[in-house]
Structure formats: structure tokens, C-alpha cells
Amino acid sequence: MQLYLIRHPPPQVAEGICYGTTDLLLRESPQAIARTIKLQLPEGLTVFSSPLTRCRLLAEALHPAPLFDPRLKELHFGDWEMQAWEALDRAQINAWAENPAGYTPPHGESVHELQARVRDFLAEQCAQKTAHAALVTHAGVMKVIVGLAQDLAPAEWMGLKFGFGAVVPIQLTAAMMNGHLFRR
User: Which fold has domain 2-182?
Assistant: First the structure.
């Protein structure tokens, strides 16, 4: 399965603020970035998108009928949402640093939970024999997919960086889909 992972454009949020599932508007119109992104995509792709506004607006600029899936949302940071990173409890941040994949922010979601829902989405697309698609989503989801496809350890894939509006092509092979990709 050929996927084109697309990160949303910059949202309207101050620098240094923790945001995940908070529904934010975009800083700029998505049409200009959509024109640039379309040049990087083959014609006729199905477009899946996170339902959050920052992804939805870009997906709608890319395709007349994108498909929205909540499994493509960013990590839910719970009580940390919309708080300045520097204002968060240092003990909680340290606990997250010691176990980044398994730690759950208060009233939030762990990276393992994010990974499970992304795997569920990919397994469903595999079962439906999706050959190629574009996913308009968030950096966290992109990290999970690239990490799974490249068989990276959590410390490696969690450190990946994707710029706003980035398009990352990724190929998921039959071996990945039948093997380690869907193991929990």
C-alpha cells in the first residue's frame, strides 16, 4: 500500500503550547498549500483525514470528498492540552521522558494507545485492499506510521520531525502487513 502522509499547515496557537486533540483553526488559508501538495501527489487518490479542523480544511482543499477518521487524530494530551510546556508539572514531564511510549498524561492517551488506533486504521485499509491513499493528519500519527513501516524502535520514531505541510511517501509491503506491523 502506497501512502502519502501529509501534515496539516500551521495552526493558530502560540509557540510553546501543548496541543493534540484541541481543535484549532489554521494560521493561513489551506488553498495555497493544497496547490503545492497536489503537485506531489498522483491523480485519483482517496484522501483520508483527521476530523480536526486543521486537517479537515486542507483535506477539503485537496479532494472534493475526503473521508474523515478519528483514528487519524493527534495524541490526546489530556490535562496538558493548551498549557505551556514550561508550565507543566516537572515530575509528570520526567515520568513521560522515562517511559515515552507507555506514559499517559493525566486524563489523556498514551503513545501506545495512539499507536493501537493507527494500527487499526492501517489494518482496515489493508483488509479493504486500499492500494494507495493520502492521509492528512498530524505529526504524531505520521511518526507512528513511518516508525512501523521502517521497523524503528519507539525512541527512534518518536524523535522524527515533519514540517507543517510536509508530504511523506511511504510504502507498506505485504510482509509488513502480515508481520510485525500489526502485532501489538
Answer: Rossmann fold (3.40.50)
